[in-house]
Amino acid sequence: MRYPFLHGGGGAGTPRAVANGVGKSVAGDAAPESTLLRAELRRPPESEAASIEHATTLARRYGTRLHIAHLSAALGLEVVRRAKEEGLAVTCEVTPHHLLLDTSRYEDLGVFAKMNPPLRSSEDSAALWQGIADGVIDCIATDHAPHLKEEKEAGSPLSAPSGVPGVETMLPLLLTVAATGKLSYSDIVRLCFDNPNTIYSLGKEHIADGADADILIVDPKEEWEIHAVSLHSLCGWTPFEGAKVRGRVKYVLRKVGGYAVDTQGLTNRASRGVV
Length: 275
What we know:
- The chain is of the alpha/beta class.
- Helices cover 34% and strands 15% of the residues.
- The protein has a domain at 5-164: Metal-dependent hydrolases (TIM Barrel).
- The chain has 9 helices and 8 strands.
- The strands form 2 sheets. Strands 1-2-3-4 form a 4-stranded parallel sheet.
- Helix 2 (45-62) packs parallel to helix 3.
């Protein structure tokens, strides 16, 4: 069955909500963080909630399944919560940056904090964490958008491309959260593998004799700092620059081609790719 998809931040053709400053010119601001804070009002939490409400109405009417991508705010989360309580087949995902960053980071990140949906308040981030604890949020996904550093810095803040890289940093960040007790390793597996596998009907199996060896091997105790220069992405930056993390991916096993790749990108073709 095909899934209807909706970006949590809203966009062209989705319901809009009125908020202070929406539609006003922001070109005159001197500080990038001020410009971005005002531009954020183009996609306020109210718009996200209205868009999700509209999508759930369609899902209810036509009896289809609905997956909400990139949920970012408490208001939208409550719409999803009510839909699930009603018994609708609605699932949703959040990103690491909406869980771990908020609008206070505009000052130091500037254009590198520009994304869609935009960063929200610390209260919204806290609500998303509660949504994970309550089981309302089904998945954590990167929304990986590795725009080059030069592309982000070219032109005005409003013309900079939206999005952040996240594939290589997501798991270390989540393992770090797990080290605090806020998540368990089982939670990470459920949010990053089990639920996506079920929602998208990927057909992947758990670790068993003869199953595909799509496996990450991690050292949950290794402590290190995230720096763009040591990451494999060619974009040249990360919004988590300098973050101290605990937990590191050591090997990636893949069925296709029988590859076993270590953290330095060295490939061992001898791996059979099955358990």
